[in-house]
Amino acid sequence: MAFELKQNLRLSQQLIMTPQLQQAIKLLILSRQELVDTINQEMEENPLLEEVAPDEASAEEVRAGVEDDVQSIEKEDSKAVERTQELTGEGDGREEFDWNNYLEDYGPVGVSYDRPDTDVPTMDNVLTESPSLVEHLMWQMKLSPFTEEEVRVGSQIVGNLDPNGYLCATVPEIAGLENVSEDNVESVLKKVQEFDPPGVAARNLQECLLIQARMLTKENPLLKIIIREHLKDLELKNYVHIARKLKVPLREVEIAVLLISKMDPRPGAMYSEEKVQSIIPDVYVVKSGDDYKIILNDDGLPRLRISNFYRELMGGVGGRDHAEEENGKKYIRDKVQSATWLIKSIQQRQKTIYKVAESIVKHQRDFFDRGIDYLKPLVLRNIADDVEMHESTISRVVTNKYMHSHRGIFEMKYFFGSSIQRTSGENIASKSVKEEIKHLVAKEDPKKPHSDCEIVALLKAKGIDIARRTVAKYREMIGILPSSKRKKYF
Question: I want to staple 34 with a disulfide (CB 3.0 to 4.6 A). Which of 30, 145, 168, 325 is the partner?
């Protein structure tokens, strides 16, 4: 068999992701905080990018400056723009660039000073870091009369607690790590279990509740018996069975159960190190008369422009040799192009979010006017057709973006959902059905809660015909317990 090389011409079309398009897609899917972090990182890597202080220029001036930057680049790259509407990202400097005219477009940046008494928070508004569970327990251990060996064993115990305050390691494991007897570990464990919060360092729920029962000021023997022997009946709220087994009046069982219900099954959760993050909305929906206005939230986002510092730098390049001058110009040219792409991508991101938010408000007008019960079924295709974009673009826009309105703060993805067929009239959104289930459970008799079958009948009376298993699924999704566990005896 003979092998030979041949040259063939073939004409084909294919989609290519340009660097500019890749950057625009990357910025579109980012959340607000991630966008700020990305901008700050770009500012560190690109010396031509600088943030304009609020007192240096208004938002209109900044946008005008950005448009001048973009127009300057596009004017010098007009031949490439005629061939395609997207930048190639090559940055090889094949087109000539009038640097002197470009740099002269910017005047000197004014220097301003902030008054020290304006935006500085007062000392009483400065938050301090709260101690973790480990730090809180170690602080108590240092105040206790522990020997050096007990401190080592106690540190192992404290270090093996989970976020809820339960001991994960076994007594033999801790004894082996510290080379002590198991009796010594048990002794230290008993001392640690006397620390605050009550119930900490327990090995299971039963031991956690027993520790808290011992700390009660008034001794109640029935309380400990129920925790030790009837924890399963307690979970099922089978109080009659407990009273019959212990041969005590039902009223005494109810008093003991009332005390147990006030105990904390997760004593370490209050010292959880998880920080609550406040949500900063990307879009504000403000009602103006009979209409709604969309306002983008630009507060906190760095306002970018291309630095004019390189005006003096470029003026001093002429005294060097030709090769060094060309290398300097090429470096600045690449950085200008990169900065321009970033600024244009951020502008395009904001415009896209605005269009999508405007379309959502238009489709969900009844929700903003009348509430959750009037939320309509909505899919990505509806918004994509309205704003003439692809569904994948809409999916990127609504992910990790939040909308503030007089109805509350919602993730933009919240307004999308499947539909439920009504027995009469138009379809209803699945979120509205979940909200209706919440209302029915909130209004039920605590001593006789609605079963799933009863909820199905109540929904059917309102024109919502769904199966019992669908009610059970929705109930679990919104965190509502079954009727047997919602029942209250007192």
Answer: 30
